[in-house]
Amino acid sequence: MNRADQKMQEYLDKHPFLQETAAVQQGMAQAVHNVAGPVEFPAQDEIKALTQTGIPLLQNKEIQEKISAAAVSFLPPVLMELLGVAVPEALAAALQRFAKWAGEQEPDKRRELIRLVITQDDENLNAFLQAESLQGAVVRAVIWQIVDALVPAKLKNHEFWQKLGWVRNYCPVCGRQAIMAHLRKEKEGRARFLVCDGCHTEWPFARVGCVYCGNEDLTKMHILEPEGQSAIRLDVCDECHAYLKTYNEEGEEGIYLQDWATLHFDMLGEEQNFIKKGSVLLESK
Ligand SMILES: [Zn+2]
Ligand SMILES: [Zn+2]
After folding, report:
1. Which band of pLDDT confidence, cut at 50, 70 and 90, is reported for residue 41?
2. Model confidence over 127-149: pLDDT tens digits?
3. Which residues contact 90 (CB under 8 A, 6 or more apart)?
4. Which ligand is nearest to the CA of 220?
5. Which residues constitute the domain of residue 158?
């Protein structure tokens, strides 16, 4: 077991209520990565030019076509692999239905589904899912897992985007809004980075203010701190009523920047009726 796996195991021993979720999440991620691997992206200079005007890479026509083509061909074998993962009954049934569907469709139909997910076209996606009797959360989770596997690790690194100067409130790779934030120690104090739940890219963003609505009035922002826990806090916006889980420390990113491993912190926000954003399981708007 490597150091990161060992840390996760210790964490799960301390949080036994996460063990089932961990088995499902890790099992599914592993299965997807067994089948799908990174595709080639343009070089850094070209990426810099492509993203300068604020268009995320996957919303660039050529790159989107390349990613879609890879996802279209990986979808059926990934789903077959996923059927081998031990998951709760309802999820197993939804995966089985999705695998059967993917095996029967023409590539064009799969391509259409993947396009709707990648472009986050919720309205048309929901109509499509309904017409095909597919379960939305499962379809979104599987397709984003595939996209995650197709994006090279280099492009997910916060330093890459820091160098390129991307400081927008959406993911430079896929365009999703952030699921979590990370406060890192930098030379001059602390800097905030955002994390994508779709492709797991991390990128820099302004240290203060709401990442979702742009509210910068600090009298309309507050912090919820879980009792006896310093690793995670919730930044809450009174303007748009969203909360953002923020990892305050360093060294355990593999745990604390995973939405599923920090699900118990969401309760703090949900109890007070604040909204969660950025999850692949949810609609994007
Ligand atoms: Zn992303
Ligand atoms: Zn806000």
Report:
1. very high
2. 999 999 999 999 999 999 999 99
3. none
4. 2
5. 153-276
